[in-house]
Amino acid sequence: MRLAAAPRPPRRTRAVLAVLALVPLLTTLGACSRADRGPSADAASDRGPAAELRLGYFPNVTHASALIGVDKEFFARELGSTKLTTQTFNAGPEEVSALLGGSLDAGFIGSGPAINAFAKSEGEAVRLVAGATSGGAQLVVKPGITAPEQLRGRVVATPQLGNTQDVALKKWLADKGLAIGDGPDKVRVTNADNPRTLEAFRGGEVDAAWLPEPWSSRLVLEAGAQVLVDERDLWEGGQFPTTVLIVRTQFLREHPKTVEALLRGQLAATEWAAGNQAEARAVVNKQLEKLTGKALSQPVLDRAFTNIQLTTDPLARTFPRLAKDGVTAGVTRTAPELAGFADLRPLNTVLAAAGKPGADAAGLQK
C-alpha cells in the first residue's frame, strides 16, 4: 500500500529547522576545537612512554644536575624502558638548533637561548618545564680593571653570540652607557668557546670575559683574573636562572609520562647533590673529565660550586625581565610574548608526589 507524502512545511519553517539541525554539529566541532587548545588535547595525543629520550646539556658546573643525573643513573632508573641518549654542547644557540631541528627532545640550556627557541618558533616548538641552576656567572677581568669605564678599548669574551652570558654582558654594558664596537671609546665583544677564552686571556688577547662556572673560576684561579661583576648581585635575592630544562612541545604532548620520569630523575639528582656535597662535586668532575678530557682542580671545583644553587624551580618570575634584556642587549628587536612558554604541570605533579611545594609559573603558563 502506498503511503501519502506528508505536507512540506512553509519555506521559513524549513530554514529554521535546517539551522536547528546544525546546532549539535557546531557544538561538537566547537568542543573539539576547545579540546585542541586545552589539557584534554594533551591526553588525546598521549602515546605513552617514549622509546627514546634524546637529552642535551653542557659540560659545565652550571649543568651539574644533568651531569649527576647521567652519571648516577637517576635519569635512566626513572625512564625505565625508555632509552636515554645524550649529547653535549658548548653554548645555547647550538642546542636550540638541535631542538628546533628535531634531533633533541629535551635540553638543559641557558635562559636566554630558551626564550629565543620559544620566540623563533612563534611559541610553538618548546616549553619550559623546570629550572636547574641559579647563579654561577661572573664578569672576570685583568688585574687593574676596577670600573666599567676601564673596559673601553678592551676585548671582552662570551661563550657564543646570543647565549645567556652574551645577553647579560651586553645588557650590563648598555646600562653602564658603554657602546659596543671597535675603537678606543667602545668595548669590543668577541665570542669564543670557553677553553679558547681561557687561552686568549692568558695570552693577552682578551681582557675580560662573562662566563659560566667553572670557567669564571678557572680564569680567576688559573689565569689571575679578578671578579668585576658577580651576576647574582644584579638580581633580587641573588637568584636568576642560569640553566633551565626545556622540552619539545610535541614530545611533551605525546609522552608526558616520559617527561615526568625525566623530572623525577632530575629531582633525585638535585636532592642527592644537596645531601652528598663532596661526592656530588667528585661526580661532576668525573663527568667533566670524561667529556672534556680534563678534570678541574679541587680549588676551581670548590669555588665553582659555592657560586651555584641547584634547583628545579625555573624562577619563572625573572623571564619577563630576561626577555626585555635581550632587546636592551641588541640581541632581539622586540621582547617576545611569553604566555604559554612554561608548562609546569609535569614538574608540579612530580613535586606533589614527593610532598614538596609546587613551582610558580608566574603567568607564563596558559
Automatic annotation (TrEMBL):
Statement: the UniProt record of this protein carries the keyword Transmembrane helix: no
Entries under SUPFAM superfamilies matching the protein: Periplasmic binding protein-like II
Alphabetical keyword list: Cell inner membrane, Cell membrane, Membrane, Signal, Transport
Name of a matching Pfam family: NMT1_2
Subcellular location: Cell inner membrane; Periplasm
Keyword Repeat in record: no
Domain of life of the organism encoding this protein: Bacteria
Family statement: Belongs to the bacterial solute-binding protein SsuA/TauA family.
Protein name: NitT/TauT family transport system substrate-binding protein
Source species of the chain: Streptoalloteichus tenebrarius (strain ATCC 17920 / DSM 40477 / JCM 4838 / CBS 697.72 / NBRC 16177 / NCIMB 11028 / NRRL B-12390 / A12253. 1 / ISP 5477)
